[in-house]
Here is the input.
Amino acid sequence: MSLEKGLISTRQAAFMITNTIMATTVLFIPALLARGVGHDAWITVAIIFILVLPFGYAVQFLGLRFPDQNLVEYSIELLGPWIGRGVALIFVVFFLYLSGVVVREFGVFLVTAVMPSTPEVVFNTLLVLLAAYGVYLGLEVIARVTELIFPISLAAGLVIFLMALPEMDFYQLQPVMAHSFPSILRTSMVLLAFITEGIVALMLIPNMNKKRQAALWLPPVVSLLLFFSLIIVVAGAIALMGGHETARLVFPVYEFAKTVHLGGFIERIESLMVGIWVTTVGLKLMVLFYGTVTALAETCNLKDYRPLVLPTGVLLVALSILIFPDAVAIRHFLAHTWPAMSLTVSLGILVLLWAVSLVRKKGNYRQGGEQNERDSRTKD
Here is the structure.
């Protein structure tokens, strides 16, 4: 059984997973994609949309074969106590490293674009403290806050896009397919690496209150939210600034927000964008932080993950400072190293566990779903 006893709804899970993928993606991905294929970057979003749905159903399928167990528990059941814990530790390191990257991205953005005189370690420490507090309170608290904040962030992002429409020139998206399809497909792997961060859902499935409903609706809902958000961000940035300028900028979405104005009385809308981004990144870090400490607690066979929150937080602050020398190194890492790392860990181990579960005939998708539905009706 999961160390966390709280339950979350399908809607809360959809918002948490989408926000976990999208919070840092929207800030960096337009420049990374435009750097690879210029104004054809929006095509990579369409390509990835075709791949996201199968990935989502694969994650749900594996999770629902073991509806009352998280990733660590059925890794040990499928692969044995030694190999299973080894695989679990790989995910612990993966979540921890990803959390460190997110904290560093947060600090670099605020220092570079907003408050250059403030030491970066101050921002990193404050973000980790906020995330640690949320993780200590538990999954239900994180889910409820995300359910409140995430729709507001989507609505605010859409308003910013609509306000920038008069300044956009969608002819800058032409000619379509100016780059070769292999180049576009290769660049789309950068975006796919960000999408596979959603594998953290395997740590959340045991706490979903309606798993069968989640199996049906969660993958398409998350896919659609991601597709429309990313196509607006990427196509909007290119239509406003062009492919070359988008590729040159470190934070094109921030520059996008700076161009927005309405008449002579609505200015500096980028401040709203910064507030939205800080909030959503904080929620993303909470989910990754939660995945890290719960996976480590399960691996070490602890009865509670909360004693791990403080030492993991200290480690995260140190890791975030030491992990990259500067913003240029972050951009190079996200464009070249991160795709190989994320796709190898997320897809490789997902396929391994999925295949072993089928060969060994472990788990029961139908029984878990039916039992979950009976539990839900009993509570109602």
